[in-house]
Design goal:
Elements: H1 11-34, H2 39-43, H3 53-71, H4 90-110, E1 119-123, E2 130-134, H5 135-157, H6 180-192
Antiparallel strand pairs: 1-2
InterPro entries: DinB, DinB/YfiT-like
Pfam families: DinB
Keywords: Metal-binding
Length: about 190
């Protein structure tokens, strides 16, 4: 899945599609490491804001779902957080995260630059109410949130038997020959979604 060659008129929306693509790729790498762990090691208490790989990765998924729901006016809002641990096992969580990543990628690929100014409603609960945000503001927030917590997972993996994968890459043309297998896997995931 190489970066898009979008026309110059949609550079920003194409950038968000590239970020969503990179997000899916980084999650693929991270989960491949996590899937080598036992269920016990995956759930083991560690030093981090969310004190386990299991809790941190479930948090990432729930926040992805929360903002995606707002982007598509899905109507679930804060009920997404009713169960803070919907996927206790890494394999189940990976399946859900991969589906979420593909939904976000498809959404971003459908955008044009003018869509980024459209406002969406985000339910912040009774104390704050419903906030209005532009799509072009919500998407960077989602990607930064993912990157932030993936960094925590990466650090926690250092204390396990799984080697933390390299996550600080983007889709540079010179690196494409080194990433053929992973990019093929990402394409396969999209086709099966």
């Amino acid at each position: 899945m190489p970066p898009s060659d979008a026309p110059a008129t949609n550079l920003l929306s194409a950038h968000f599609a590239d970020m969503a693509r990179n997000n899916a790729w980084s999650n693929l790498r991270l989960y491949r490491a996590c899937l080598t762990l036992t269920d016990q090691a995956f759930a083991e208490h560690r030093v981090s804001f969310f004190p386990s790989l299991q809790l941190t990765l479930n948090h990432i998924l729930l926040v992805d779902r929360y903002y995606f729901d707002a982007l598509v006016d899905g109507g679930e809002g804060l009920t997404i957080f009713d169960n803070e641990l919907p996927y206790p096992r890494a394999a189940e969580l990976w399946d859900a995260q991969a589906r979420s990543d593909q939904q976000l990628l498809a959404f971003c690929e459908s955008l044009r630059d003018e869509d980024l100014h459209r406002e969406v409603r985000i339910d912040r609960g009774p104390a704050v109410g419903v906030q209005r945000e532009k799509i072009g503001g919500v998407l960077p927030h989602v990607f930064v949130h993912q990157i932030h917590h993936r960094g925590q997972v990466h650090a926690m993996l250092s204390g396990t038997t799984a080697a933390p994968p390299q996550l600080d890459e983007f889709f540079l043309a010179a690196d494409a020959p080194l990433r053929v297998a992973e990019l093929r896997d990402l394409n396969s995931m999209r086709e099966s979604a």
